[in-house]
Write a structure and sequence with these properties.
Structural class: mainly alpha
Largest sheet: none
Distance between the termini: 20 Å
Strand content: under 5%
Radius of gyration: 20 Å
Number of strands: 0
Length: 91
């Protein structure tokens, strides 16, 4: 795995984790009862994006280390994912 592949893998893991972390323990303006005029009641009251980004980064680093370790060790290769046998025999 090259540096670009590693960076893309980390970015994909980070964004997927971020989208999972965003709604956890979220309090909406409607829940709190303080709806700002012009906004939806489902808008977050206090989004805490910096805290959520740090949590996401910590989780993504751990997941990236595990997945990159599996890829670099060769435990799972692209041939293992070839269910239809389109790659042909290994050379």
């Amino acid at each position: 795995m090259g540096p670009t592949s590693a960076l893309v893998l980390f970015a994909v893991i980070w964004f997927m984790t971020f989208l999972i972390v965003l709604p956890i323990r979220l309090k909406t303006q409607g829940d709190v009862g303080e709806v700002v005029p012009g906004t939806h009641a489902g808008a977050p009251h206090e989004p805490q994006l910096k805290k959520r980004a740090l949590i996401t980064t910590a989780i993504a680093v751990v997941l990236w280390c595990i997945i990159a370790g599996i890829i670099l060790s060769g435990a799972i290769t692209i041939r293992d994912l070839d269910m239809f046998g389109r790659m042909g025999p290994p050379k």
